[in-house]
């Protein structure tokens, strides 16, 4: 950069700027990698961030594109800083031309130097205008290109994270079992299970992605810029100010380049105070996400249970409950506002002081003729850029707190998922029949439900499980299906979809009836005729013509009809073993007989294990397991009635 006479040689500037941008970008990339690695190694939030997002930067399939986008964004951001520098030189030329014009105008009317001076000043002025037009055009194009590449980066990162976190959450039943894992909140408390995973996957990922991009890259030099442009701005403009600043006198001492030290100290102290004021915002933002999610979840529950609530006339209780939750949201909101007022008040005061500081410091030198009007203005704009860049952390702290809260929440979810996968499960092995060896089932508090249960069922056999309410029948099924972590022993069963567990109310997805019937298998696996026939078989003939209808089937079908859908699934998937948890509780005894009869005759090989309170169910089974409480149980044969 040629600073001969304070200005630039604009003819060489295009090449100079491109070379500068390349070098500084390369250095910034190296710095980004090193600092990123140090943060990931030595700070808690850095570690958490890396745990959540690491794969996006290292996964072989997507990493090349990720890094390409990072390099492009870096180049654009650094080029943005360079443009800011060039703007200050354009300002320098412009104000110097104005000052030269003013001094020419001050000469005598007849003085030939007057006209020459005015001509030179005008020519310099219009040249600076042409430079401005060029710089402004480049600035607009650069900003738009950066917006596009920034969006491309965000979309890729958000898609990767959503896919990755969702997969992790659903894998190995972590989404069910993470309720048994206590997790830590920002203030060190332990909560039972992960709250609102839906919000973590949706809102927190969005926050994390937005701030990754804005923190690191966003356009150069301004208060809303990213950390890399902020650092580059800081260095570049410090060098510029160093050249512009003269000695400063403090208590009789002469400090050369005092302006630069003054500014550094000013911003450093201002930032320290800002961090101190802003710190509680981390926890408050964390709470905000949780409380709003809780409120939304409560609203969804009312919608989901509208019929039940209306039948109980529970509107008043629900209203109170909803408003209670909403009050918590508002209370926290006010806490955030009060804290933000303090925080913003401080930041605004600091920003206002920064506006006049360079003029205060440079005024004497200007009036003494040591610096030109252009240089006075260049000092102010360099100071503004530098002060904004140095204030980056102070101004962004508020948003950083939201960013950190999101990292904590996403890491918490993944941590709970990982721990959920490590929770004990019953040892399962593949086989053709069913065998339980020394199975113990406990409650979470350690109370024994079933102790040392061993039994074997072969092809065609059927077992009915009985026992008083709360004796552990459903929990036994949960233990065998690998959901319940407080279970020990060994369990042999046919692998995969050959073993089917059916709960009291089957899950009906939001889809057309065809997909509902075949869930979780894709509907394409079955022909229309098969689906129609199965509907007729399970006494749902009125649905035969509605296979393609998309309805909220869980609300449209009666509980008894939903249970028949469950039986239809058994007939379609023809498992080798089926576990039925009170699967006929909502149908009358006649229909129960017909449904069991259907299963036993159509699928005579299938092993059936049922939980039932009804004595009428026993006739379809060959054995009975009775849970007697405190771990005791009894296994008996059921006599086959002969006509
Ligand atoms: N997630 C849980 N956390 C703590 N305790 C639980 C949990 N789930 C079940 N229990 C307890 O385990 C015991 C057994 O429950 P389970 O649902 O297996 O009973 P059940 O025999 O199927 O009852 P019912 O006949 O009423 O359906 C109950 O005391 C229940 O409160």
Automatic annotation (TrEMBL):
ABC transporter domain residues: 434-643
Intracellular or extracellular location(s): Cell membrane
GO MF annotation list: ABC-type transporter activity; ATP binding; ATP hydrolysis activity
Bilayer-crossing regions: 20-42, 62-85, 129-149, 223-244, 259-278
One Gene Ontology CC term in the entry: plasma membrane
Keyword vocabulary terms for this entry: ATP-binding, Membrane, Nucleotide-binding, Transmembrane, Transmembrane helix, Transport
Primary location class: membrane
Tree of life domain: Bacteria
Domain spans labelled ABC transmembrane type-1: 221-402
Membrane topology listed for this record: Multi-pass membrane protein
PROSITE patterns per UniProt: ABC_TM1F, ABC_TRANSPORTER_1, ABC_TRANSPORTER_2
Coiled-coil parts of chain: none
PANTHER family, A to Z: ATP-BINDING CASSETTE, SUB-FAMILY D MEMBER, LYSOSOMAL COBALAMIN TRANSPORTER ABCD4
UniProt-recorded name of the protein: Putative ABC transporter, ATP-binding protein
Organism of this sequence: Gordonia crocea
Lineage: Bacteria, Bacillati, Actinomycetota, Actinomycetes, Mycobacteriales
